[in-house]
Amino acid sequence: MQASTPQQRLAPHHELPRDAATVAAYRTPVRFARDPLAELEAISGRAAGAVVRLNLGFLRPYLITRPDDVQHVLSGHADRYVREGMMWQPVRRLTGNGISGDGPQWKASREVLRPMFAARHVAALTDLLAVTVNEAVDALDEHAKTGRPFDVAEAMTRVADLALGRAFFGGGIAAADGDRLGQAVATAFTSLTARILLPFAPRWLPLPGDRAFRRAVRTVDEVMYPLVAQRRRQPDADDVVALLCQTRDGDGQPLDDRRIRDDVVGMYVAGTETTAMALTWLWVALDANPAVAERLRAEVEDVVGDERPGAAHLPRLRYTRMVVQEVLRLYPSGWFLPRTALASDVVGGVRIPAGSTVVMSPYLTHRMPSLWERPDVFDPERFGPERTGRHRFAYLPFAGGPHQCLGSQLFMVEAQLVVAAMLSRFRPRLRDDGPVHPRAAVTLRPSRRLAMTITRRER
Ligand code: HEM
């Protein structure tokens, strides 16, 4: 028998599972509370891809960043990990247990919803999206006339709300109800922060934000249920609510009102804030990278010129697509993905006991120096056609595995249209109000308000 070499003895697959090194993040509570992202980035940098356990005092999640390990949890062994605990429990009080849940109810919802996001359907939706985006960007013209700055995040939220609103509700929702729904969902989300940060607080213990949350959920119901009733009376309408009203479940039964309400709200929650924040970061990235902005402007000029951007322009807006992909690398709206382990497991050589919380973070994986050359540099060329061979889970703004985002194609189309509509009409500039960095909320938000001024493009 041949003796093993030291390298063979050290090879990870020969090692016995070990306990994770624990990082006492609670020892630096002030730093952690002030800027959890920066702390997590520092911890992830020191761990260099190893699975570590964060001791946050009240919660001790395992942090998983290496693509192989992320793939293990999200895809290869996804059946061992569920969306329970941490942020999921509170979110579900808004969205119910369908598409944003897990288990059989989630599966049934996913099967019903997936065909609605197939390429064929997205292509059919593109014209509607183009009209919506063009209208929303037209509305900014007043700022070009007056020179008055506007809040970028608010403007992008409006575009995202309108776009998904039209796709989901067609003309079936009055503008005022659309605004009420958008605001209620946003309020419900922000008022959940305390519940998300204190996942073990019992339901009976009042926390800040609880009342606002309950009010917001009531508003969501007041808008949604009448809408479902209306669509049941108009079965030929062509939008997502109408399609759901016509759908039968696996047993051939129509979907009940509650299920339609839950899945539409679940998709709305998943798709609006994420889109709005990604579009907001886009302008931050362009402002900080004038050479990229100039090349983008030239592409839009060349492809769109004086026309109104639409489906026909999209295939040629190649650099635009690369820029959007790079925005999602540095600023992935869905920056953390928590799961609960159903059974004990071994990930990256580390023992994960049953019941543990594990957290994957596209934000951290996208910034690992072992995966990305000069990870802090904004460089759309990373997504050029010749760049292949990357690990599937090195880049995961839309996650992966069975819960992979349903709206990724819709988002890419919308983002290309927004860039093209903005740059074919305006020259945008952010007001210089000092540095801005990502702040961790349910999505990745800018650390301060961002004021934009626009002037009309000279023809
Ligand atoms: C920049 C835009 C977006 C980002 C970064 C994003 C990101 C994500 C991520 C990371 C997940 C996986 C969550 C998990 O694994 O627990 C997800 C799921 C989901 N996303 Fe998106 N998303 C975006 C836009 C959209 C849009 C426009 C829609 C439209 C409806 C949408 C609908 C969904 C749905 C329904 C799920 C749940 C899928 C499931 O669990 O089966 N997303 N998204």
Automatic annotation (TrEMBL):
UniProt entry keywords in alphabetical sequence: Heme, Iron, Metal-binding, Monooxygenase, Oxidoreductase
InterPro entries per record: Cyt_P450, Cyt_P450_E_grp-I, Cyt_P450_sf, Cytochrome_P450_Monoox
Record's keyword annotation contains Oxidoreductase: yes
A Pfam family reported for this protein in Swiss-Prot or TrEMBL: p450
Alphabetical list of PANTHER family matching this protein: BIFUNCTIONAL ALBAFLAVENONE MONOOXYGENASE_TERPENE SYNTHASE, CYTOCHROME P450 FAMILY 4
Family per record: Belongs to the cytochrome P450 family.
Protein known as: Cytochrome P450
Organism: Dactylosporangium maewongense
